[in-house]
Design brief:
- By secondary structure, the protein is mostly helical.
- It contains four helices and two strands.
- It has a two-stranded antiparallel sheet with strand order 1-2.
- α1 packs across α4.
- The two termini are about 25 Å apart.
């Protein structure tokens, strides 16, 4: 059922996201599985990036919060990365969601 179930307002971004929901869930499950370290793997696997300290690491007297030059765990919200990958605008999704809630409240008041 599309986000605009009441058919009161258009929700194209929600509809696009819902159309991709099965793919998004599968990728999230895979990422969770990688990080879990389960199924006999010795360690968990996680997304990382390589950070080497340079002049941009300093902000006045403050040092970079990252450790020595090494792979650093990429702290991410899977939802944000997947939205970026699938070209879904989460700001638009939230606006559409709020519009749906407001429309539902208006219907209840009548």
């Amino acid at each position: 059922m599309p986000c605009n179930a009441a058919h009161l307002i258009p929700t194209p971004e929600c509809d696009r996201m819902l159309a991709l929901l099965d793919k998004i869930r599968a990728i999230r499950e895979f990422l969770d599985w990688l990080e879990s370290g389960k199924d006999g793997r010795v360690t968990s696997i996680f997304l990382a990036f390589y950070h080497e300290h340079d002049g941009d690491c300093r902000d006045g007297e403050l040092r970079c919060s990252l450790g020595s030059a090494s792979p650093e765990r990429y702290k991410f919200q899977a939802e944000t990365l997947l939205a970026e990958f699938y070209n879904i605008d989460l700001v638009k999704v939230e606006k559409e969601r709020r519009a749906i809630v407001e429309a539902a409240h208006r219907l209840e008041d009548h």
